[in-house]
Every structure is written in structure tokens, then in C-alpha cells.
Amino acid sequence: MTTDVARVKTSATVLEAVELMNDADSSGAAVVDENGRVVGLITALRLQREFFPLNKRPEEVTMCQVMGPFYRIAPNASTREAARRIVEHHITRLGVFDGENFLGWVSLADLTREFGKKRLIDALRSRNESEDKEFLCPNCRSAFLGKITNKDGEVQRWLCPNCGYTL
Length: 167
Description:
Blueprint: E1 7-9, H1 14-23, E2 28-32, E3 38-43, H2 44-51, H3 63-66, E4 72-73, H4 79-89, E5 93-98, E6 101-107, H5 108-115, H6 117-125, E7 146-149, E8 155-159
Parallel strand pairs: 1-2, 4-5
Antiparallel strand pairs: 2-3, 5-6, 7-8
Helix pairs in contact: 4-6, 5-6
């Protein structure tokens, strides 16, 4: 896990975020609200997908317009589970949260160093069931969505306990 994660405010512009990421020699940063709480993620890839199509200047677009949600994992989760989630969701990093407290992130590069290339490929090919997924609410970004299931245990929808947003 990387604990020294660059952080950028939701009000920061794309230009400010890119400068921060360049200074930190990182391809991503955690996005924090005015209270310092992590509410999202920005990566170089996300900028390509979200910012460029807007066709605006980097000083005209703020982080809250282009940031993405953090996929999360618990600090006691295995590296194997982290690798599986990264591949399953086609992402490059997972936020490590202890409750609502952001501790850092686990990236694909971290896992490659941990496993080595061959062992990582073997871990990714494993067929174990993944653990429950947790998603930061895209509406209020202050709580994680809870799953609503039917009597058979199938997920019907996701609900934010804070603002009532459903997915």
C-alpha cells in the first residue's frame, strides 16, 4: 500500500491537479473536500476520458467535475483480493479505507512489486468469489452505498444511507 498519496481539493482546477501529480511523480491523486476527507480519485487515465472530451481549458474545469469514485478495500484484505478487484473493475488502484478513514491506496504497480509478474498472473487467474463491493456515493460523496437485496440474496439496487441516492 502507498500511504504518501498526493491530495488535491475538489475546488482545484485540472491544471492545479496535473501540476500536483507531476510534482509528486504520480499518475493519480486523492480528491479531498474542504474538511480534508477523501471523496474521490483523479488519474491520468481519468483525465483522458473525462476532461479532454469537455474541450475546455484546464484552468476552467475543477476536480469535482472530473473526479471518479474510489473503489475501496479494507486494510486487512489480502493482496490477492486487491489484485482480483483491480482486474475485475478494470482500474489501476484501490482506496484503502478503515471505516471512513482513508489510509492510502494499493495500485497495480504495488501488487506487481509484491507478487512478481508470474505470481500476480496466477493470483489474477484464481476463481475465488470476490468479497462485497463498496462504492462511494456519486451524489453526496460522503457515504458508501449499501446493497439492497431480495429474499434470495440477489442485489436489487444500491442505496446511500446519507442522501438516499439509489443506483
